[in-house]
């Protein structure tokens, strides 16, 4: 199905063993030659992975400069324009006084969208993947790095506490694409993570999203702040009346826009 696959799995004890156990036949106190080619090669490969320029995006997601009418069929959240899909619910996530993420819910699946500033000539998705995977494995989770429909992604089993206090896992997919001076991350949960083959519509929402980076100086990884549409508050207050009238103020099938956290990144 997928060409390449890497699994990362560790709890705290396993992680300690992995660090402290010497390589086959080697003493832990033995010095490693400074000019060892393998070590240098690994470091060079890691540096190349981090510093690669953004890959082509023939199918999106899009920069605002690449779309003739970016607002057509999309909900304008300022930093990103989210395509409307029939039957979807759109939620926003607030950090302090700022809106930093939007979540599209379709039946029993969801995708959280979050845009960040990025270096002008370097992509950051490879580096971000490593950081996310490391955080999950340190918590005892399992991470598979696979080449999926949107490029390299992480498919994770994240430890969670269930409502009854028992321990469980949540299946989550982390997807990402580097653009010109921005990075768009998606977090797919629900059925779209349990059965990735059913997430085609959510993946298309991610592809059709338009990022508005703006020209203001921003540090790499700073979140691109979003905003509510002008009539979002009225929609939230009058949602029952609108539902009774059988209509939505947003084109493209957006049923509701509401505040509230949906999915947060595991750190």
A few lines on this structure:
The protein has seven helices and 13 strands. The chain is α+β, with helices and mostly antiparallel strands.
Descriptive overview:
This protein is an alpha+beta fold and 267 residues long. The protein is 24% helix and 33% strand. The protein has helices at 12-20, 37-51, 125-138, 191-194, 200-208, 232-237, 239-245; strands at residues 5-9, 62-63, 74-76, 80-83, 88-95, 98-106, 109-117, 142-148, 151-161, 167-179, 182-190, 210-211, 254-259. Strands 1-8-9-10-11-7-6-5-13 form a nine-stranded mixed sheet, sandwiched between helices. A four-stranded mixed sheet has the order 2-12-4-3. Strand 6 (98-106) and strand 7 (109-117) form a beta hairpin. The radius of gyration is 21 Å and the shape is globular. Residues 1-5, 9-39, 41-48 and 233-267 have low confidence and may be disordered.
Strand content: 25-35%
Largest sheet: 9 strands, mixed
Instruction: Say how many strands there are.
Output: 13
As residue ranges, the low-confidence spans are 1-5, 9-39, 41-48, 233-267
- The Rg value, from CA coordinates, equals 21 Å
Overall geometry: globular
Instruction: Write out the strand line-up for the largest beta sheet, numbering strands in chain order.
Output: 1-8-9-10-11-7-6-5-13
Total number of helices: 7
Report how far the terminal alpha carbons are from each other: 30 Å
Q: Report the average pLDDT across residues.
A: 75
Structural class: alpha+beta
What is the H-and-E element order? Answer: EHHEEEEEEHEEEEHHEHHE
- Helix percentage: 10-25%
